[in-house]
Design goal:
This protein has about 280 residues and is α/β, with parallel strands linked by helices. The protein has one domain (about 40-275): Rossmann fold (3-Layer(aba) Sandwich), CATH 3.40.50. Helix content is about 30%, strand content about 20%. The chain is built from seven helices and eleven strands. The chain has helices at about 15-35, 45, 75-95, 115, 135-145, 160-175, 260-275; strands spanning about 35-40, 55, 60-65, 95-100, 125-130, 150-155, 180-185, 195-200, 215-225, 235-245, 250. It has a nine-stranded mixed beta sheet, sandwiched between helices. Helix 5 (about 135-145) runs parallel beside helix 6.
Length: about 280
């Protein structure tokens, strides 16, 4: 006689019920940790994030995406720039030291360049820790999250360690300090992250017929948004541009990066590469 599972008689879980559970989980997580949200400065993106920004007291992950050429550079400036931008947002609302933990990837590896970082925050607030092993990077990040006077913690690593990720998440939740994991190469995601981003360089826009370099542009993908707006079938993506005068990021309007605009920008990029 066949055995029928009791779950066969259970009514299907509706989308409304799943959304209600997700909202309850978000409210409980935010209330337990006493988390605040720091806006990214991009309203179109902040509208999708929990409480209108990146939660403090949480772990966020940033990984480099492929450049227009299809190659992922060893040190992608777009991912590092976005990480520095977020560190600057955290620094603007919290006093204290910014802790940057990293493991050099090779002989030609260079530490963060202070004059460039000054675009986003005061380099005098930055403390850089260099480690020989990925385990030491995770350890330094965790100790930093437990240390008073730290405004935000960032760690550069290629390693994936589920146990270390959970420890970082718990340490961030307990201290209320935001933690960022910066990955120069795609890696299996940390399941405990609240948000996960993929950042890639994008062709800049310039005046047709001129060969001047336009403002830097990045392609942002929000690949995980645990407590934010309901998940959708496609990963949300934005083309953003940096303004040196206002020191702000802005989302490029859809009319400028639709199919026609994308083809135009790609042709300009190819022209620069060839000529």
């Amino acid at each position: 006689m066949p055995v029928i599972s009791p779950s066969a008689f259970a009514p299907p879980v509706s989308a409304a019920l799943r959304e209600k559970v997700r909202r309850l989980e978000r409210a409980n997580s935010v209330q337990q940790a006493g988390k605040a949200a720091v806006p990214t400065g991009l309203p179109a993106i902040d509208a999708l994030l929990p409480e209108g920004g990146l939660l403090t007291g949480a772990l966020h992950e940033i990984e480099a995406g492929s450049a227009p050429s299809g190659r992922i550079a060893a040190h992608d400036g777009a991912a590092l720039g976005f990480a520095a931008h977020l560190m600057g947002r955290f620094a603007a609302v919290a006093p204290g030291t910014l802790l940057w933990c990293r493991r050099p990837s090779g002989v030609f590896d260079a530490p963060p360049y202070a004059p460039a970082l000054a675009t986003w925050f005061d380099p005098a607030r930055l403390l850089v820790v260099t480690a020989r092993r990925d385990e030491d990077v995770f350890w330094a990040m965790e100790e930093g999250l437990r240390c008073p006077g730290i405004a935000a913690v960032l760690g550069e690593t290629r390693a994936t360690d589920a146990t270390a990720g959970r420890r970082l998440s718990l340490a961030a939740e307990k201290s209320g300090v935001p933690a960022l994991l910066l990955r120069p190469q795609p890696a299996p995601p940390q399941s405990v992250c609240v948000t996960r981003w993929r950042i890639a360089s994008a062709p800049s826009r310039s005046t047709p017929g001129l060969h001047d370099v336009g403002a830097p542009r990045w392609r942002l993908e929000l690949r995980l948004n645990r407590f934010g707006a309901p998940s959708i079938a496609e990963t949300p993506s934005w083309l953003v541009e940096w303004n040196d005068e206002t020191h702000c990021l802005a989302v490029v309007p859809e009319t400028l990066h639709g199919p026609a605009g994308a083809r135009f920008e790609e042709s300009l990029f190819e022209e620069r590469m060839v000529g």
